[in-house]
Amino acid sequence: MPITELLTRNATYFKNDVALVEINPEVKNVPHVTWREYSLIESDRSGAFRKQLTWGEFDVRANRFANLLLTRGIKKGDKVAILMMNCIEWLPIYFGVLKTGAIVVPLNFRYTAEEIRYCLDLADADALVFGPQFIGRVEEILDKIPKVKNCFYVGEDCPSFADSYEKLIAYCSTQAPSVYITDDDDGAIYFSSGTTGFPKAILHAHRSLVHSATVEQAHHGQTKDDVFLCIPPLYHTGAKMHWFGSLLSGGKAVILRGVSPEWIIRTVSEERCTIVWLLVPWAQDILDAIDDGRIVLSEYQLDQWRLMHIGAQPVPPTLIKRWKKVFPKHDYDTNYGLSESIGPGCVHLGVENVHKVGAIGVAGYGWQVRIVDENRTPIESGVGELAVKGPGVMKCYYKDPKATAEVLDGEGWLYTGDMAERDADGFIYLVDRKKDVIITGGENIYPVQIEDFLRAHDAIKDVAVIGLPDKRLGEITAAIIEVKPDRTLTEEEVNEFCMELPRYKRPRRVIFAKVPRNPTGKIEKPVLRKIYCGESVVAQQNEIEYKG
Fold this sequence. Notes:
Blueprint: H1 4-13, E1 18-24, E2 40-43, E3 49-54, H2 55-71, E4 79-83, H3 90-99, E5 103-106, H4 113-122, E6 127-130, H5 135-141, E7 150-153, E8 163-164, H6 165-169, E9 186-191, E10 201-205, H7 206-220, E11 227-230, H8 237-249, E12 252-256, H9 261-270, E13 275-278, H10 280-291, E14 307-311, H11 317-326, E15 331-338, E16 343-348, E17 362-363, E18 368-372, E19 384-389, E20 396-397, H12 401-407, E21 414-422, E22 428-433, E23 438-440, E24 443-445, H13 447-454, E25 460-470, E26 474-483, E27 488-490, H14 491-497, E28 509-512, H15 525-532, H16 538-541, E29 545-547
Parallel strand pairs: 1-12, 4-5, 4-6, 6-7, 7-8, 11-12, 11-13, 13-14, 14-15, 26-28
Antiparallel strand pairs: 1-3, 2-3, 9-10, 10-20, 15-16, 16-17, 18-19, 19-21, 21-22, 23-24, 25-26, 27-29
Helix pairs in contact: 1-2, 2-3, 4-5, 7-8, 9-10, 10-11
């Protein structure tokens, strides 16, 4: 069945139950709002702006937008892009697009104007829905996106070059459009992280979207009573596909616009959240805030919180051990995935396997995995490339058959580009990205291993290891270290700490600087290479001491 049928089912059986809540700590005063479907618009007891929608209202808003699109000539197979920050309108708009039979195209809110233009062109977008934060970027490219015939603006003070989403949907039918959609119909185009240049367009069928919902519930056991806290950006497969577990169960989800540790804990307490998906930096920030007294756990109601899980990046085992000391009753899980495999879950640790923290796990629900050598022959031991196969594998890179053929074979195996190995119990450990492997003097070095080691130092907040060009060895390892705000650290102390590593794995350069991460928590190593591989770092190496 198409993913839209899950929403229709929830609106039928759970019509008056809360589906979505938005918490925006940055908005203290309630603005004028004309959206009559909202069942609650108020400031919560903490002063943050709060909105909520029931499942019935969610479905009505999706139907209204679908009917608006149909009146504008959007038809099955067309593409509608969404360029918005997380908000309560995001998901009804997403499902409104899907109900027309069109293909939804979520865009990264950090894209520059040129990247937005590039992605709209690559996806053959016919319409664009955007929010207030993007007026300037959209206006800048208007004359460069002639195929985009409709621009819908979500917010107050609609610019002259767009149509007001809010005003138009008020006149549209609340009935679901009569469009026949199958599992095999195209449903969504997601974009890769763009770590090797401009992003690729990843095409998924409705079958993939439904499978991600099934996988999420199978792994985390969502029930109608669970409340999911969603913090990461909804344009990304990770956040949305974890929310799909709530869609399948009919449970409530809370969209928090902000990542401060105080607001995360406050929202968990006040909204009675039971499941929270965090990125590594956010989990670290929460623990640091507890350690330094900014968060006093006894002031919050957290007994209902049953599961914390992390994904989108390698997870330091030291972080989870530290988390379990503070929250001993929490289940912990991690899911591995990529946008080409419809996000998280193709490899899954499992809450029962917390003793294997550090591994990404075993094949997820409905998935197959294998590790292959350079000839793509399966291997039972040693380091090789991870490949996955299942109902969530993409159909293709849209309009890029060459790139598709490079990662997807005729049997449906997707080659991830991640280097991995199995332990004696069959658990898979990520070693590194294939492209991130550093070759120094003919020796392969996997940066993740060094990063995990360095994160165990109690003064280090974050770390990234990259290769720097070297005339004699080809490359040498450099550690970019972000120190905790209240700590100091010297290069000599780092070198002393690294004496436990084999000699060839010890960083040859230590650079104290902020570690850049994208909105999904992945280290932006291309940014670091651009900064440090193209210029001398001698001046930075001469710094004796860095104060965070």
